[in-house]
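Q: Got a minute? One more chain.
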Amino acid sequence: MARSVLVTGGNRGIGLAIAKAFLAAGDRVAVTHRGSGAPEGMLGVRCDVTDQEQVASAFDEVEAAHGRVEVLVANAGITDDGLLLRMGEEQFRRVVDANLGGAYRVAKRAASSMLRNRRGRMVFISSAVALSGGPGQANYAASKAGLIGFARSLARELGSRAITANVVTPGFVTTDMTEELPEDRKNEILAQVPLARFADPEEVAGAVRWLASDEAAYVTGAVVPVDGGLGMGH
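A: Always. Here it is, folded:
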């Protein structure tokens, strides 16, 4: 049975692969974007997840077209790297607000619908950096680590209503950005990955779709690494 699925930041990269996976499974898929539109077959809703009013309007639009959101994938996020001593407060705050604050805003709005439905799936896209840290990424790593505590708190709050909340932590994924890396940097990265390759975005999407499936109905509060063994489960 087709479900109403919302993927934030689902117009490119990992988010797009996730949105396409749900679309291929027959779900009604909406994606948020900040002006670039949506791929064919999906409903695009313009939304900056740092703006509560835009989040509310986006959900209203999705619900009018597809019904109450049954699956939320909180994927939208940004990076703004810099070493700690050079990182300004606004630089730190902006990344945390987009990545963690944005997840809070969309999850809060989705939860109201899921509670009425007495079922739902939330999946938060974190990063392997959340658990390992990364030089020059204190803001990004903090925001992505925060998603784990956030999701596990929701798992405890909402579980009695058959609502699950889980986290996926991708490692290095083939994207436009990684394709542009110098060959020596690629080799340096791959030397850390037991499977000796980058992930395809579709491999991350497969884990997300499983967590949102009936087969994963008894999985909540989990952190699922899709990192080629980079973090060895941590």
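A: The mean pLDDT is 95.
Q: Perfect, thanks.
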